[in-house]
Amino acid sequence: MTKLSTTTRTALKQSFPNLAKDVKKFPVRDGEEPWTLHEVEELAALLLEDRERLEGELKAADAELSELLRNSGDGAGDDQADYGSSALEREQELTLVNNMRDLLDQTEHAIERIAAGTYGVCEITGLPIGKARLQAFPRATLSVEAKAREERR
Description:
single chain, zinc, mainly alpha, 65% helix, 6 helices
């Protein structure tokens, strides 16, 4: 367990004013210890840091993609290989931006669930997701069983 800085604690109190009360309601699976305030604070701090990092990276990637789209025809000449290379580069950058947006959305959703006091509840079954799963992947919204069923479809 890491010690949280004063700045981080202040940010947590601003973002999650009811966290000390809500943490007692976060469900766990059979055999798991109840959530502690410190454990949830660490996950929440990680999510807040990730959100800030992703927003910065997304802004830079969006700017790079805009630049690629703006200059897509510059210097390509008549060579089909140049056009193909430019198209591939744009496609890769677009995929990166879309993946980053998805990750940012997942991060925002996890932060919203912590703030609402619904963190740790599977969105399909309503059962506990599991403390170990959330510690490994804090953005999880489905239990392992629900995720497996979803992937089989």
